[in-house]
Amino acid sequence: MLNRGHKQDPIGVFDSGIGGLTVVREIRKRLPEESIVYFGDSARVPYGTKSKKTILRFAEEDINFLQKFQVKVIVSACFSISSNALEELGKEFQEPLIGMINPGVNALSGKSSSKVGVIGTNATIESKAFEKKLKDKFRGLDIYSAACPLFVPLAEEGWTEGEVPELIAKKYLEPLLARNIDSLILGCTHYPLLHSVIKKVVGNKVEIIEPGKEAAKILEEFMDDNDLRSKGDGSLKVYLSDIPRNFDRTVVNFLGERPAEIELVHLQD
Amino acid sequence: MLNRGHKQDPIGVFDSGIGGLTVVREIRKRLPEESIVYFGDSARVPYGTKSKKTILRFAEEDINFLQKFQVKVIVSACFSISSNALEELGKEFQEPLIGMINPGVNALSGKSSSKVGVIGTNATIESKAFEKKLKDKFRGLDIYSAACPLFVPLAEEGWTEGEVPELIAKKYLEPLLARNIDSLILGCTHYPLLHSVIKKVVGNKVEIIEPGKEAAKILEEFMDDNDLRSKGDGSLKVYLSDIPRNFDRTVVNFLGERPAEIELVHLQD
Questions:
Q1: Are residues A109 and A178 in the same domain?
Q2: Do A54 and B44 touch (CB under 8 A)?
């Protein structure tokens, strides 16, 4: 049975690092009065290059940490977790879970897409999670996937415009463009930072879909349907397992602001 | 007091992931009869973007694992660990430790370098470990450093030749070339894989130094001086905390062969 918690409880969001703050940004735009507790496993980031087994084990530990805060709903902001471990996590934990795959798939509803591209980490693409759910939902849709592993370090290094990211984006996206895709799902928390480079490469004929925006909408609808909306102060508490070296620069790129409260925690302590 | 172990014991090598296998490769070339136990913390890789505190904590756990094998000497193959934590580790552990910074510095001896470039991860470059030791050893030497964070994911993705790595190498190395460096220390386990691209960018006037080669030499000399050489079967046992997705491709790139024995371990179990 789901344990939905109480409306005054915070929303829990977790991610392999600070990339999930791009999702928090969307949640805060849509639900400014909700309190959010965020955990980013920045000591073990990235997850997207690691095995399914390790991703699941880490995600369990991440959720165990969030449970300390009596969260009313948990958002798995990381696409590598959502695509590799959400089913198992759903069986294991009582809290309602919202992942990133369904939002990415739902975002295509009402659009006339017939050929969609999906990009993400190696873990996300190899899982075929998007492919399976897109096929289930949209008959006759052609789906073309590509792993873009260098996009994460590019976004983390702040190389989000100029010839290097453009050249890399071309290498990754040209095989999809050759298939005449009409829409492109950005299946990784980091990719919204590369939106303008990706736009430049794919052109105006391809619609770019950011599942984080749709995830915030699905979260809002879920909370409305389950009487979980609160009128709080919209506080955001960020817990991280490491304060990475590029933190000061990247946190503002991802979240759009500097979080008021940041605390360092060790999961194994 | 140092606890040197016995000559029949294996050499322990540890690293943040599988990059340290480039150092193992050099050790095996020079010391083919020695047994080696390797631990790569591939579940938490990379370390080079993480804080000094986290690097030290992880390295302690890595060494704790190696201690189970009664290793006679421990090689810290990771430059991010060697530059950020070796001093503390040396105080804490009894086994003789060989890091990567002294080998990099020693490799410059007998050369007529007057302007050296040092490249590495953010952790290595920010530590200024190379800079301090180079200044201590060589009076009047000009030292120019540059962090090259995208080199690690490039090497891991196998993008070691072609226009993308060349363009990135140019961006990183041109500021050093503008200072007329005559030698360049590759201060990261992954960079030997990019040797030819780096060579193409820096040209023939700049000598490229791979500290891994010198580390193997220093290890040999240390073992000779301390009666630690054995005539064994040259076995190599590789322990990893995750079998990463790109493992099959990358392991051969790094080690030059496929290790006969690979075992998955969890440090926290």
A1: yes
A2: no
Q: Which range has the worst mean pLDDT, A257-261, B70-74, B149-153?
A: A257-261
Please indicate, yes or no, whether residues A96 and A221 belong to a single structural domain of this protein.
yes
A118 and A95 co-located in one domain:
no
Contacts of B15 (CB under 8 A, 6+ apart): B21, B23, B38, B39, B40, B41, B76, B77, B78, B81, B189
Query: Which candidate in A245, A248, A262, A267 is best for mutational testing of the B interface (most B CBs within 10 A)?
Result: A245
Determine contact, residues B211/B102, Cβ cutoff 8 Å: no
- Catalytic-residue membership of A148: no
pLDDT, tens digit, for every residue of A84-131?
999 999 999 999 999 999 999 999 998 889 999 999 999 999 999 999
Q: Would A4 be classed as within a structural domain?
A: no
Task: State how far residue B127 is from chain A, nearest Cα, in angstroms.
Answer: 11
Distance CA A21, CA A77 (A): 8
Domain count for chain B: 2
Range of the domain at B168: 102-211
d(CA B182, CA B192): 18
CATH number at residue A79: 3.40.50.1860
Query: In Å, how far from its chain's centre is CA B207?
Result: 19
pTM: 0.96
Report chain B residues whose CB lies below 8 A from the CB of A58.
Answer: 43
- pLDDT category at A268 given cuts 50, 70, 90 is confident
Where is B195: in which H helix or E strand? Answer: helix B195-202
Distance, in Å, from the CA atom of A63 to the CA atom of A65, rounded to the nearest integer, reads 5
CB within 8 Å: B164 and A159: no
**B1 falls in which pLDDT band (50, 70, 90)?**
low
User: Which residue, B180, B172, B165, B189, is CA-closest to B23?
Assistant: B189
- Over residues A258-268, the mean pLDDT reads 91
Can you tell me the distance from the alpha carbon of A187 to that of A192, in angstroms, rounded to the nearest whole number? 9
